[in-house]
Amino acid sequence: MQTSFMCTRRALLRASALGVTLAAIGIQPAQAQQTMESSDHIWQDLKGVVFGDRTIREADGVVAIEAPGRAQDAALVPVNITVDPARTPQGITALTLIIDVNPSPVAATFKIGKDAGITHIATRLRVNDYSYLRVIAETPDGGLHMAKTFVKASGGCSAPAVKNMDEALKTMGQMKLRQFAASPANGGEPELQLMIRHPNNSGLQRDPLTQYFIPAHFIQTLDISQGGRQLLSMEGGISISEDPNFRFDYKVKGTGEIKAQATDTKGKVFNGAWPLEATGM
Amino acid sequence: MKRPALPIDPARRRLIGGLAWLGAQAALMPLPFGAAALAAAQPPLALKTVAEGVLAFEGVVELETPRNEGAVANLGVVVGDDAVAVIDSGGSVVQAKALIAAIAKATAKPVRYLVNTHMHPDHIFGNAAFRDIGATIVGHRNLPRALAARGPYYLQSYREQLGPALMTGVEIVPPSVLVEDTMQLDLGGRKLELKAWPAAHTDNDLTVHDPESGTLFAGDLVFVKHLPIVDGSLLGWMRQMDQLAAIPASRVLPGHGPVPSLWPEALAGERRYFEALAADLRKAIAAGTPMAEAAKTAGQSEAGNWELFDAYNGRNATTAYAELEWE
Ligand SMILES: [Zn+2]
Prior knowledge:
Distance between the termini of chain B: 31 Å
CATH architecture of the largest domain in chain B: 4-Layer Sandwich
Shape of chain B: globular
Structural class of chain A: mainly beta
Number of helices of chain B: 10
Distance between the termini of chain A: 44 Å
Order of helices and strands of chain B: EEHEEEEHEHHEHEEEEEHHEEHHH
Oligomer: heterodimer
Strand order of the largest sheet of chain B: 3-4-5-6-7-8-9
CATH topology of the largest domain in chain B: Metallo-beta-lactamase, Chain A
Number of helices of chain A: 3
Number of strands of chain A: 15
Number of domains of chain B: 2
Strand content of chain A: 25-35%
Radius of gyration of chain A: 18 Å
Helix content of chain A: 10-25%
Bound molecules: zinc ion
Strand order of the largest sheet of chain A: 1-8-7-4-5-12-11-14-15
CATH superfamily of the largest domain in chain B: Ribonuclease Z/Hydroxyacylglutathione hydrolase-like
Structural class of chain B: alpha/beta
CATH architecture of chain A: Sandwich
Shape of chain A: globular
Order of helices and strands of chain A: HHEEEEEEEEHEEEEEEE
CATH topology of chain A: Immunoglobulin-like
Strand content of chain B: 15-25%
Helix content of chain B: 25-40%
């Protein structure tokens, strides 16, 4: 059972952008620090692997991405994606988040529920070097729109690794949901913040004793719904920081509870359910 | 506010194979070196006598740069009747070899142990030099795992930061003897007490106490003057402050800061900083302020009290925000 599961998973990963590694597609990032030019150069190769020959429009105002110009902690780089509803009357169906220079550059793909009303998603990323962070938004007609921002995230003893592994393993699977009332500060719609305890291990390190690679262990899928309708689903990889954390706005419908289900690469399933708070309505 | 870094007197620098070596600082009391010692292949590191049989190198309170050669961490040496233990190997093999040369001038006894206080490069990049002279490397039970996760990243990012010349010979050498909880190292007539701590500065912090002289080698569990860096658990660090303070020593070698410092008074600064930082972050989290925004303001009331505040406070706030969000 375990073996067939693993095979299925590998096949799935191979079939999706999340399985793309720079090494597998023959890209060897420079030993020296990356620049805007070298990051763009990697993207030129990566683009075709992830999106084929589809046209991607850049900086046309449909989507925007912000992150600190210099990352404080390479393991925890906050990123905020915003969509401009005025420019996308049909809404957005998917957002793909890419970190050019990371070993596993496709950090996550978000699928957005049809009437979820999501116009921003904030999360945290591991960034291995100086790199562009990119977001590619997909509209219902299949159009692709990109925004990018350059982050300097290298140097010093801040490494994109798990900080407190004992604690991470002990608390794995815990979930927490915060509900923020609608306010002018968050664009006039209520927000949810879903947090999952998980080391989101890279699998790129060797066991010091056996010298075998420690298998990657990370949150692979996440589905969030309210009142039985899907708000947001994510396919994620190792470039999402430990304790994956997603904050987004949405449109409340009815009074149904908020549910979340996450699965990790070991096949563990984590579930959470929370009543809709008055403040969220 | 950022005070200027400690001055480096160019007259005190000596050239080694094209690299400038940072010599003794005015505040240090260098051991007396004979002419023969000065002519040795590897000019010795300037060590300060802290107590009978206890020597130390005092790192500069600066970021690691090619100019200071990454020699920013404090390093300790304890001499017993039979053997020597070294606490931390320094930020390069160049520095480690200079430390080994200085120990050879001070005593003929062999270096039996190298103790790593934690995973950070300024404390472990000299490990290969100690392995090569036959020292047994001792560390926290979590240190091999932490180095496996970070080693390749450290080697690459420090090549960028320190330059390839200083990175020559640097390897990630994990400890072969692991401390589960506590351990004694017998140097002959002198027993060092090692303790492995739960996550605080990192998840692999180890302290060394020499009851004979009343000296605590705290590694980066204690920062004085230099802003503390949180790369493990702020809450864990705050929780174990009292237990740390209870170690019956009279002086401490902080990981960074004046050598020696008074114990346990040396803890006062970081304790105050952690409380201020945690209080600001808890307020921001309760108000729903996003991480990037909170990191700009949390802890700022402490800016005037520390060197390297601007270099590390935003990072600490970011790291601790993610931890405190789960309270
Ligand atoms: Zn450290």
